Amino acid sequence: MLSAILEQTINGLMAGSVYVLVALGMVLIYGVMHVLNFAHGVLLMVGAYVCHFFFTRVTGSYVLSIALAIIVLCLLGIALERAVFRPLQGNLRNQVIASLGLILAIEHLVIAVWGPNALQMKVPATSALVAVGELRFPVQHLLVIGVTLVVVAILFVFLKTSKFGTAIRATSQDRQAAMVVGIPVERIDWITFGLGTALAALGGALIGPLFLVFPQMGDAPMVKGLAGILLGGMGSVPGAVIGGFIIGVAESLSTLFMPTDYRDSVAFAIMVLILLVWPRGLFGVRVRGED
Amino acid sequence: MSRLALVLLMMASPATWAQEKLAVGIITSLSGPMAAPGKFQMNGFRLAEEEINSGGGFTVGGRKYAIELKVYDTRANPAEGASAMQRLATVDRVPVVLGELHSGVAAAAAPVAQDYSIPLMLTIPTGPSLTEQGNRFLFRVNANNDQLTQALAEFIARQGWAPLSFIAWNNDAGRGGVNGMKKLLGEAKIGYVGYFNVGEVDFSSHVTNIRSQNARAVMLLMDEEPGSLAIKQIRDAGLKTQLVGTLAMGSDRFLKRLDAQRLDGMVQYNAFPPNANLPHIRAFSERYSKKYGEEAHGFAAQSYDGLKIAVAALQKAGKVDGAALRDALAAIEYDGVIGKVKFDAKGQAHPPVYVTQWCADGKRRILHPENLKADCGAG
To answer: How many contacts (CB atoms, under 8 Å) link A and B?
Structure first.
């Protein structure tokens, strides 16, 4: 039983890592622009496809392909901010509708380019197995968790200490006050959007070799990431991290004593329970002017 | 120059040149989620068409015909299936329609066949209820799910693989398959049962549960894509349990998704072992790989037989008429590539069902039925 719990905890941390990467991007964008980008899941999917393309067709180096996928998706995010979200600024409803429309547009574009069938991405270097007691995990599995933790740490340092990070935090606290002190908030917008999509691309590139690369692969991480955000507290960066991991580990552990087809319900039931006790989520702060 | 070549080509094959064409309806998936298996189906039909026509066609009631396929794409969509069937009956006026892969589409097309008294011959759908509707114009060449499970259950019971665990689609096919095996093997022989939703790719929770319940064997009720992921995750986690798979997991295509080491020892039910040492299978597999450059597939073999049976029945009926053809089909006995085909009163044929096993070198052997047992390389 102990090893089953250990195995499921590690599996949960792995799934949670992907939720965290999606949640972080969404929460950063939400903080700065006050828009929930529902297309974040399909951007993760595009990241996986781009990584697959570079890996199988161009470089053959997994690390390089991840980096290229991050760069491409970062540029794509900036382009989307310019072309879709900025013209709709100030109209939250239209921005949400636009992000829902993007899901359809991007998903069908991907199907048109790569076809509807799942692609395989075999990375020999990371498919080696690591033994933990009687359990065994592919290196890729642990890589997902490790890389996510490192990226989260870097992101925290960046937000807390760098000038840009401080500007992002200032803009998300109060856009007008940030403008008053001379922060170029429009530049912050597109930088944040690019950063957010880059995180999604990393998520996609990391789980591609573990599972398959297919058009719907971003759907579950987006929904679970969103649950993580709500659970952690809307707009809170540490909340998104803790929330994502809680959802991942909780749904994995639940399968030890409940039918596995209930795992999605478990994730959302936990979210609802936590919101009942802490209506703003674990790390949510009360914002002046809301409710 | 190219026109001259075309004329020469036409003169060179007078069989297809001077003859009257007889159109036969085909419904299949050329696009959509089932486009890949749809290709196997079309390959089978095309191969049969080519052979019939290059052999000089066939005679019905004293008139000689070459065959022509009227193909409609149903895209795994029941509404498309019904409307294609309607069109074939009223516009193209074909005497028989063959094909389809998707049980839902077949269910939508079948009543139309009855309405217009045109036989519909299914060559791939496995939903057992299709042939239970009292539709006299529906025939199924391939074995249905109940027949496939029956053969596998006999084999598993003989091996004494209990408890048998499952990872299964959370849908009709998955739950139906688990219930079918429960009925055949008895509840006591069933261990952990885990369902997953279409689109799920992480099977780690099932792996943990199978490990902690010490399952003797685990059956994967799913198709190629999740199947390859599940096997990879089970083997990577160090589980040595016996794997049991479906039709989709006994082909070279599936081997390419994984590797011989992970598949070694796995068994699966199969409707057509392409390398079996039986003359009719041998001959078909050779012709197929020569034409298409890949291993022959069961879906192609079933569809190939389907068209051949339709033509044989047309000849027997002696006229191009749906109702007459139906009666001829009901009575026909045909030695096909997939084995002996004879339709029962419900229109269901009973071809042999095989259980094959993966060998360490990536080849397959036949374990069941007993009289056709064959060693590695012949499965």
So the answer is: 77
Task: Report pLDDT for B112.
Answer: 97
Is A11 an 8 Å CB contact of chain B?
yes
**Chain B residues with CB-CB distance to A256 below 8 A:** 205, 208-209, 212
Do B208 and A11 lie within an 8 Å CB cutoff?
Answer: yes
Q: Which CATH number fits domain A2-277: 2.40.50, 1.25.40, 1.10.3470, 2.60.40?
A: 1.10.3470
Residue-wise pLDDT for B324-345, tens only, equals 999 999 999 999 999 999 999 9
Which phi-psi region, left, alpha or beta, contains residue A261 (left: φ > 0; alpha: ψ -120 to 50)?
A: alpha
| A211–B237 CB contact, under 8 Å | no
Alpha carbons B324 and B318: distance in angstroms, whole number = 8
Rounded alpha-carbon distances, angstroms, from residue B286 to A242, B32, B279, B282, B297? 59, 29, 11, 6, 12
Please, which residues have CB within 8 angstroms of residue B289's CB and are 6 or more apart in sequence? B295, B296
* Mean pLDDT of the B174-187 span: 90
Which pLDDT value is given to residue A290?
52
Interface confidence (ipTM) of the complex: 0.84
Per-residue pLDDT averaged across A118-136, rounded? 88
Is a pLDDT exceeding 80 seen at residue B11?
no
Q: Residues B124, B142: contact at Cβ < 8 Å? A: yes
| Domains of chain B as residue ranges with CATH | 2-142+279-342 (3.40.50.2300), 146-270+354-372 (3.40.50.2300)
Contact at CB, A4 and B208, closer than 8 angstroms: yes
Within chain A, how many helices (H) and strands (E) appear?
A: 11, 2
Separation CA A23–CA B201 (nearest Å): 20
Task: From A42, A68, A73, A44, select the one nearest A54 (Cα to Cα).
Answer: A68
pLDDT, one tens digit per residue, over B251-298 is 888 999 899 999 999 999 998 999 998 899 999 999 999 999 999 999
Chain A residue nearest residue B198, CA to CA: A216
With cut-offs at 50, 70 and 90, classify the pLDDT of residue B16.
very low
Sequence-separated (6 or more) residues with CB below 8 Å from residue A269: none
Suggest the residue from B34, B198, B208 to mutate for an interface test with chain A (most A CBs closer than 10 A): B208
CA nearest to B250, candidates B358, B350, B378 = B358
Phi, psi of B119 (to 5 degrees): -65, 135
Which chain B residues are closer than 8 Å to A259 by Cβ?
194-195
- Residue A147 phi, psi dihedral angles, 5° rounding: -60, -40
